[in-house]
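pipeline stage [seq->struct] | target=Sialic acid TRAP transporter permease protein SiaT | organism=Devosia equisanguinis | residues=706
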Amino acid sequence: MTNIAAASTNNQAHQFEDEVAEGLPPGFGPGITGRIAFGIAITFALFTLWTAAYGALPSQVVRAMHVGFLLLLTFGLVANLVAKTLPGKIFFWSLGIAGFLTGIYNWVFYIDLIRRTGFLTTMDLVVGAGVVVLVFEAARRILGWPLALIAGIFLAYCFFGQYLPSPLIHRGYSFELIVEHFGFGTEGIYGTPIYVSAAYIFIFVVFAAFLERAGMLKLFNDFALGLVGGTRGGPAQVAVLSSALMGTISGSGVANVVASGQFTIPLMKRFGYRSAFAGGVEATASMGGQIMPPVMGAVAFIMAETLNVPYAAIVQAAIVPALLYFAVCFWMVRLEAAKLGLKGLPRDQLPNPWRAVKEQWPLILPLAALIYLLFAGYTPVFAGTMGLALVVVLILGTPLAARIGPMAFRVVFWIALGLAAASFTWMGVNLLLAVIVGLIAACAFFKGGRETLAICRDALAQGARNALPVGVACAVVGLVIGTLTLTGIASTFISAIISIGENNLFLSLVLTMLTCLVLGMGIPTIPNYIITSSLAGPALLELGVPLLVSHMFVFYFGIMADLTPPVALACFAAAPIAKSSGLKISLNAVKLAAAGFVIPFMAVYTPSLMLQDGGWMAEAFGYPVEVAYVIFKACAGIGLTGVGLVGFLFVRAGWLERLLFLAAGISLILALPFTDEIGFVAGLVLVGLQFWRGRMEARKGLGQPA
């Protein structure tokens, strides 16, 4: 192993232990209470996986138990990791137990609660109001004040909106109706977001935890390092490629920063990049993981459920923008490297990327199986559960295979195990479960096997812990959605957007973008998307924007909000690693991603960029021609815009030249008459001038006559 690859391994060795759930220190806490919290996390994971695999419980019970486990584990960790006094620890553990009992209450009295709809008992009202209060407190503890305050404002509107002036006034609602709507129905806390958290998101978070424990992060880093580490600006290119690969399984921007950044940011700094720029590269690339198929961010699953479309349709719409996003990152860091005169890493210090794949190729099999299942029409729940089961089979089978002497017998073992694991497609999950149980029993009898079981145990617990911020956000944002459905206030907002957009669609899009960015200053991507899409999605549809495109527009800018100052979560996560201020990192990230801000606007005016319906070009020349042209135009526009922002192509560009590059790039982005022609001509002229100046300067440097 080379020095750099070894450094990669060392940095990754304890990366899970270093991860921090938002608002909580790492770990589960010391002593017996720490072991209890650890056990609760494992139980939470096993319960969720069992309900996903067998669907043995009603949906309402699953949602309520999911919230109950979220509250129990959240307040348990707050007690263990935050509370300083014994009374404080007892208080928070009591809150957690009370939250868990609300889930048990919904399970035990499931039929009775259905029969009592509209006529809740006093105990029902206490439990319903209690879960609302506990969800607020959990959100405040783990996500901070902003999201809790936003949800609180919406809930207060339900109570006091009848006293507001028109058009905000509503008819008024009783305490009993509000508690029933938010605390028991499927349009409040137990609405679509928490269903998606329980059914989809949790499984994929645990799936990513198992893959990373198995060494997938090391494989991605070694592959990226060997493939692009020797190119111009190699360390930054490694950060972009490894984050793109990591995004295929993680879907969490902040987690990607913490995981990949431990290796890539110090590497970039060592080879000449400024600290703030290195942090900006990692933050920008990592946030793209949320739109990188096959396992996108949690929002993608919520979007599929909200729009009632297959997950594969979301992937189809996201694939081209995702590739363009990372192309922007590659292009910008390459220009910056050329501007600073930075070279690539020495070839003799780089690992062989294909050898890394050859040595660790089994890790790719569960990801390949997941991709196949998603695109073969299976539900994300089934695909994620089976993908996770295959990872477990791979991890548990490795120490057993190592004890088989002859290579031929080892090959036979893996073939037999692979066939048994793959049989779930026609024999159901029971056989696959039996295979896993058999492997667990076999591993329990020797030392290496028991260590492997500990890895799986720790991955289950860490996966549950990693899912807490997402799950709590889904629970509290249900209060916002519940307010919209109960009061109908969304129609007021929609009418305002439509009245603005009647004369100017671009202005409506800008207002929607600003809404996403402003909300993103205080809340995560998931509630940002849910709130903004609920308000702006129908309005943009009325203005002629396809519904899927409008939701992707909101999703995209929800991601950009985590890079935008003053509150840029991904950038502040990179700050301690880069040893620079989060604000400086954020300014660099916005610069790096600036060209990418235009992609959603292009998709609205040319939906074929998201592989949606074509326009006149598709009718005249065929759909593939239009898609190819739009992608080429997007690449050209982004490329020219990047040169204008960085101020370098072949040589340094002056301010006037940079403004002309920006104008040419924006001309290609606009969907107006003759703007494409203007942009292409201006771009060719400017690139030609840059090339000619570069040749002249090179000749002067060699002492040749110009």
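stage status: PASS
auto-comment: The two ends are 48 Å apart (CA to CA). The CA atoms of residues 480 and 531 lie 7 Å apart.
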